UniProtKB/TrEMBL annotation:
Gene3D superfamilies: Metalloproteases ('zincins'), catalytic domain. Pfam families: YgjP-like. Residues 32-241 form the YgjP-like metallopeptidase domain. CDD domains: M48_yhfN_like. This is YgjP-like metallopeptidase domain-containing protein. It comes from Thiocapsa rosea. InterPro entries: UTP_pyrophosphatase-like, YgjP-like_metallopeptidase. PANTHER family: UNCHARACTERIZED PROTEIN YGJP, UTP PYROPHOSPHATASE.
């Protein structure tokens, strides 16, 4: 403990709220009240009075389980900010959770290949950054079309057991959401989701499929999502962690 009466580093603990495990950090301070915060990277922190009983803290965190999960839901709607891509040789780009370095060369045939840790873009023209960007983005869109439809088929097999209808799938760039669900049964996925591992893509798809049955994020929605994907919270945390790197 420091001379100011504060702990030098936060302690760590966790509680179970339903089937969700809430991990949190605790900082003890010279104060009278206990405060719970949820941060943009989905971390949960507790600031507690110096003489707080750990069991009292656990009970308070558990009591606020619904609120914490609601904060996670809100935060996951917003994409982490990434530096602008320059599309120059050596720059890294993510595909299905892995990082690949960009290698743009001039050759006889126009092609984009993903192999041995590289995106190799071959062009008959001079391989400028603008050209590399067009070629790579077109390739990623084609892959997104294939992968997202494939993952939808996997998730739909489980969703059909709960009577959830088959949706229409659209793909487009979205500024603030990984996915959305319209009243007409259309699910839209963010093209940027092709950066994430397949288990994270499945999470976003299943989340939106559940909205076909439950429009709002009420208790029935979360119960349905948990039934269809018991580890959804771990997948959500992985999505935010991987994309933020």
């Amino acid at each position: 403990m420091s001379a100011t009466g504060e702990t030098e580093s936060p302690a760590r603990d966790c509680v179970h709220w339903g089937r969700t495990t809430i991990h949190y950090e605790i900082s003890f301070r010279a104060r009278k009240t206990l405060a719970i915060s949820v941060h943009p990277d989905l971390r949960v922190s507790v600031t507690a009075p110096l003489d707080s009983d750990p069991e009292v803290i656990r009970a308070r965190v558990r009591k606020h389980g619904a609120w914490i999960r609601e904060q996670w839901r809100e935060l996951e709607l917003y994409l982490p900010k990434q530096p602008p891509r320059r599309f120059v040789n050596g720059e890294t780009h993510r595909y299905l959770g892995r990082q690949y370095r960009l290698r743009a060369i001039q050759g006889e045939v126009n092609s984009v290949k993903c192999l041995r840790g590289y995106f190799q873009i071959t062009s008959r023209e001079e391989p400028t950054p603008a050209l590399a960007r067009r070629r790579l983005e077109a390739w990623l869109r084609d892959r997104a079309e294939a992968v997202f439809h494939q993952r939808l088929e996997v998730c739909q097999t489980r969703a059909e057991r709960e009577g959830i209808p088959r949706p229409i799938l659209k793909i487009k760039r979205m500024r603030k959401r990984w996915g959305s669900c319209a009243a007409d049964g259309t699910i839209t996925l963010n093209l940027e989701l092709i950066q994430a591992p397949k288990e994270c893509i499945d999470y976003v798809i299943m989340h939106e499929l559940c909205h076909l049955e439950e429009a709002h994020h009420g208790p029935r929605f979360w119960a349905l999502l948990e039934k269809l994907m018991p580890d959804y919270d771990q997948r959500r945390a992985l999505l935010n962690r991987v994309i933020a790197q």
